[in-house]
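Weekly structure sync - notes
Attendees: PM, LS, DV (DV joined late)
Agenda: review two folding runs queued last week.

Item 1: First target. Sequence and structure tokens pasted below for the record.
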Amino acid sequence: MRFINPKIYFAFKKIFGSNESKPILISFLNAMIYGGNSTITDLEIIDPYLPSKVSYLKDSYLDVQAKLAGGQIVIIEMQVLNVASFAKRVVYNTAKAYSTQLFRGQGYSKLRPVIALTITDFEMFDNDREVISHFVFKEKKRLFEYPDPGMEMIFIELPKFNKQLDRLETLTDKWVYFMKNAPSLEVVPSTMENVSEIQQAFAIANETNLNPEELKDLEDRERYIMDQQGILRKGIEEGLAQGREEGREEGREEGIALGMREKALEIARQLLNVLDNQTISQTTGLSVEDIQSLRSE
């Protein structure tokens, strides 16, 4: 038995965003957001495409989006490539999901909290070793929370999770292990058999449920992303070298950003005849407008 890689866009949406995924997504979000407590009892999986209600704002494309029974909105993104300005993109999408809830004439009381859950296959916070980081609005010195903050951001950094199967204790441990290691497993681990939703996720992820075209497409995407991870790492190294040559911190940061963007554009050009604009944007971190510009070159 082999399982598809849940870190790949197609697989992630199939496991967590399909019509049969509701109980799976509830369990996953309870684990990732609420420490395994059964806080979420119901939700609605909704269109992850966030068209802008304001003409000059960028459209957004997420992997999965859900509205909880209490009205909160959860936007979920799985990001494999550490592309330029990704941290800013997360903030932008979170703020946009919050601010564009209202139509003209509606009062601010209609706003519902937005939780942005981001799972990364790379390390975002080099100075911290925790797997899960939870950001909220707080007063800078005395650290009390802002009343009705409206937005939260949660990051799951998969490379920092190193627990083995026999050390998995919590629901959170089991879901993070699933996300990181499912493709390397041949059977559903006995330590996860008591969680029916994880068993369902494994069932959806079973390669035998894919037709030959879907399986080939998934394998091609996974192989390509692995290649691009190497290219982006090289871009970061070149950016660092450029920054060092300029001999100042500003030059170093600009060099890194420039190198990563150039590599992202290089990847996007190679994908133009393979993928649609939305998928290329998800893969590279470039905006859909950037992709459209490349097509018109």
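Item 2: Second target, run right after the first with the same settings.
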Amino acid sequence: MIYKVLTIAGSDCSGGAGIQADLKTMAAHKVYGMSAITALTAQNTTGVFGVLEASPEFVAQQIDCVFDDIRPDAVKIGMVSSAAIISTIAARLKAFGARNVVVDPVMVATSGSRLLDEDATGALRGELLPLGTVITPNIPEAEALCGFAIADHGDMERAARRLAAGLGGAVLIKGGHLTDCADDLLLSEGRLVWLNSPRLDNPNTHGTGCTLSSAIACHLAMGRSVEESVRRAKAYVTGALRAGLDLGRGSGPLDHAWAVREAD
């Protein structure tokens, strides 16, 4: 059986994040990847230098074309830079009854460049996050959504509970911004699960969030539970970091093909 996954996100011309990272991740998981592009970006490992948004109408047309012909088993949502695009995506996914939706609330790039308009945060919180089977904010994104600082495990637990209130899905707060570890916290069906891991000595983390959320979507498409999907996705990202790919002058990309190379 061929599983199909749709990514709705922005393009990264340097190939490390966005739909390029998503499709590489999907190929590594042997699922059929499709994309609806929300924006073109001019970026590399040192920063984002330009963003050209697609119109909401064209984003809707892409989504419609995919669902009308090759219905996805899971959907991953990444960079959505305006309230109008967010509302459009939410409306189309509701219309098609999309399932296994992973929402990565991309607000700030690894380089520090802001990718989400200030006025779009409310639309993200009110229209898109409630559609998520699982949402995957990192600590700065969780802080922006919750309105308070997150410095330790206790803060992460409080943030997860606040984010989950009123949402029907699971919340995964990524701990990559913690100073002494890289522990992630999953809140699913009222249960807190810590996914502990040491911090890897690798400064090249461009696209880690895109990669993780896409990997989760791949496993959900295969019929795995949220917890199992998150655990397997985290293991994949850890392997991609441990592979030690070193490209570019800034925060470089992951080695999405590490498992394929190991198999060879």
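Discussion on item 2: The radius of gyration is 17 Å.
Action: LS to circulate a short write-up before next sync.
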